[in-house]
Amino acid sequence: MNSVLFITPILIHPDWNKQFIITTDASKFGLGAMLSQITEEGERPVEFISCTTNKHEQNYAISHLEGLAVVWAVSKFKYYIWGKKFIIKTDHKSLIQLFNSSEITGRVARWAMLLRNYD
Predict the structure, then answer these.
(1) Which residues in 1-119 belong to E strands, given as ranges?
(2) How far apart are CA 50 and CA 27, in angstroms?
(3) What's the whole-model pTM score?
(4) Cα–Cα distance measured from residue 45 to residue 5, given in angstroms and rounded to the nearest whole number
(5) pLDDT band per the 50, 70, 90 thresholds, residue 90
(6) 3-state class (DSSP) for residue 66
(7) Helices 62-76 & 106-115, crossing angle to 10 degrees?
């Protein structure tokens, strides 16, 4: 995400015929995401979003914070991605195991149910 911020800070209009990419990141104090698309010039941003975490979310394990960032970003960008295939990029590889586990419960199960509405 940093390379896109420093190289091409100008937002582009979405091309509804191209696939969207959602890049997320999380920390104890906030969540951030970028919606982008691949153009002739490379990956270009369509929109950036961020928010602070509340006092309860600040106690989440890092895997859960990264999962929260994905679910939050998908819900914020739903008008762009609904009914379309899209790519999620994150720097936290254990999220795949977290969501693909056969015994997910609690908040992760709720997140998995929300994400099933998307391709």
Answers:
(1) 20-27, 30-39, 42-52, 86-90
(2) 11
(3) 0.81
(4) 8
(5) confident
(6) helix
(7) 30
Amino acid identity of 55? K
Segment 25-43, tens digit of pLDDT: 999 999 999 999 999 989 9
Which amino acid belongs to residue 52? Answer: T
Quote the pLDDT of residue 106: 76
The maximal CA–CA distance of the chain, rounded, in angstroms, is 43
pLDDT tens digits for 96-114?
666 666 666 677 777 776 7
**pLDDT at res. 64:** 86
Is 2-115 CATH 3.10.20.370?
yes
Burial of 26: CB neighbours in 10 Å, binned 0-12, 13-18, 19+? buried
Residue 101 host element (H or E): none
Look at residue 39 and give its three-state secondary structure.
Answer: strand
Q: Where are the domains of the chain?
A: 2-115
